[in-house]
Amino acid sequence: MRPLELELTAFRSYDRQTIDLRPHELVVITGDTGAGKTSLLDAIAFAIFGRTPEQSTPKDLLTLGREPGEVRLTFAVRGQVW
Questions:
Q1: Closest of 48, 49, 66 to residue 12, by C-alpha
Q2: Rounded Cα–Cα distance for residues 29 and 63 (Å)
Q3: DSSP string computed for 63-79
Q4: Are 18 and 6 in contact (CB under 8 A)?
Q5: Kind and range of the H or E element at 6?
Q6: Could you tell me which of 14, 21, 24 has the C-alpha nearest to residue 73?
Q7: By three-state DSSP, how is residue 23 classified?
Q8: Are strands 70-77 and 2-11 parallel, antiparallel or unpaired?
Q9: What is the pLDDT tens value at each position of the chain, 82 positions in all?
């Protein structure tokens, strides 16, 4: 599976963000503590499995004071885009 684009709305530390991974062959997620690195990985897990590794409830994943939240992941598998 190759992630192509990640769209976040009111998810954890992201109010509204679109991350296009298509132009990159290799991606490294770096940043200061609290910058949102784990939130990106949680968003990918939530989009695929409907939960995060620590099994937070959907309400716990919302940006404080925001509703609704949404995560959209576009990815490719064996030449097909989902």
A1: 66
A2: 21
A3: PTT----EEEEEEEETT
A4: yes
A5: strand 2-11
A6: 21
A7: coil
A8: antiparallel
A9: 999 999 999 988 888 999 999 999 999 999 998 888 989 999 999 999 988 888 777 777 887 777 788 999 999 999 999 9
